[in-house]
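Exercise 7.
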Amino acid sequence: MQTHEPTNGEILEALKEYSGTTNVRIDQTNVRIDQILEAISDFATHIESVMATKVDLERFATKKDLERFATKVDLERCATKADLDRFATKADIQRIVTKEYLDDKLADLRGDLILLARKQNRKFESFVEDLAQDGKISHTMADRILSMQPFPKLTPELLKQ
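Solution. The predicted structure, written as tokens, is:
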């Protein structure tokens, strides 16, 4: 029986083949590890966005705060998890309309209304002036009508009075 001893070339070839498959497996493992790390990073980002901050936690009652409640009646007045579910979230608070926003909107609307009133006032002035020119009303009456609010048109005669 003759045993075949592998040559150095055969051993080297076998090692190259084994290292090639090992490298492929390592590369596949690295890809999987990268995917897992990316998923963990995404999850951590999500958790950070919904978790309370240190400042938020400082506002919560501690065990020491709760120890001051001596009776069952006092404890019944505490907020429960169900009660906390009814409170506004950070997202809700961000959607609340502020006084500053409403003041700006009211100022814009007031300006729009004044522009409309001035436009109507100009039309009315033209109408009264046309009536006075056609002799339908006297110039004195036209001046008196035009001197009325909201946007009076004062003539020199009315300024003397």
